[in-house]
From TrEMBL:
Residues 39-129 form the Methyltransferase domain. PANTHER family: PUTATIVE (AFU_ORTHOLOGUE AFUA_2G14390)-RELATED, TRANS-ACONITATE 2-METHYLTRANSFERASE-RELATED. The lineage of its organism: Bacteria, Bacillati, Actinomycetota, Actinomycetes, Sporichthyales. It comes from the Bacteria. This is Methyltransferase domain-containing protein. It comes from Sporichthya brevicatena.
């Protein structure tokens, strides 16, 4: 998303911006994983981080919007779980310890910055840890609904392939997401390190269908 978005104002105006539920593709990819240490980069007001914490993960979650982090704190209190929330910039923030999981969900920045964030975050993984990026794709501009209208902040397959250089790619694909306004075209990258155990519980594409209403 463009640098000119006033995220504090957006969250203050609508705390229910992204809903209560975790992103459906995160849920499909992570639900079967053994809990460990996770970071949710650009966590917003915490729907994915709280979902992870409820499943037993130790979660650090970072966002540039202090209003979002305040709302996220309230969300984790309501859920009765602990998350280490932090106001921070993904371009500079680093975790204290190696990680089993990095989530980056609907973070949109101009391409060299976004791919740089993904590549840098992948260096934080323990052997066998996984990084998951989910975003609106550039293809969404012509084939889908919603999301940013600036093509420069929307990733395509080649951009994410570049970010994954040197990593083991588990998934790199477009995914269709049904919304009230129509079908959105998302993009997903999942990577792991080359030195970990053989990944298990890697769902087949059938698992990525939206849950039945
Ligand atoms: C579309 S929201 C997605 C929030 C969350 N990941 C989710 O899926 O619910 C994008 C988020 O990126 C955050 N963001 C944008 N630029 C950032 C930066 N440089 N550092 C940290 N967070 C940033 C915004 O504050 C916003 O919460």
């Amino acid at each position: 998303m463009a640098k000119d978005i006033d995220w504090d104002a957006r969250y203050a105006a609508d705390p229910a911006l992204w809903g209560e539920q975790p992103n459906q593709f995160v849920r499909a990819r992570v639900a079967d994983a053994e809990p460990g240490r996770a970071v949710d980069l650009a966590c917003g007001n915490g729907r994915n981080a709280v979902w992870l914490a409820r499943r037993g993960w130790h979660v650090e979650a970072v966002d540039i919007s202090s209003v979002a982090i305040e709302q996220a704190q309230q969300r984790s209190e309501r859920a009765g779980v602990h998350v280490d929330w932090e106001v921070g910039d993904v371009l500079a923030w680093t975790p204290a310890e190696p990680l089993d999981l990095v989530l980056i969900v609907y973070l949109h920045m101009e391409m060299p910055e976004l791919t740089g964030v993904i590549a840098r975050a992948a260096t934080w993984l323990r052997p066998g840890g996984r990084l998951l990026y989910v975003g609106h794709s550039r293809t969404n501009l012509t084939r889908g609904v919603g999301g940013p209208s600036n093509p420069e902040v929307l990733a395509e397959i080649a951009d994410l392939a570049g970010a994954a250089e040197g990593l083991r790619v588990l998934a790199l694909q477009h995914l269709l997401r049904e919304t009230e306004a129509g079908t959105a075209v998302d993009i997903l990258l999942e990577v792991t390190t080359w030195d970990g155990p053989e990944p298990t519980g890697n769902p087949d594409p059938g698992h990525l269908k939206p849950p039945a209403p």
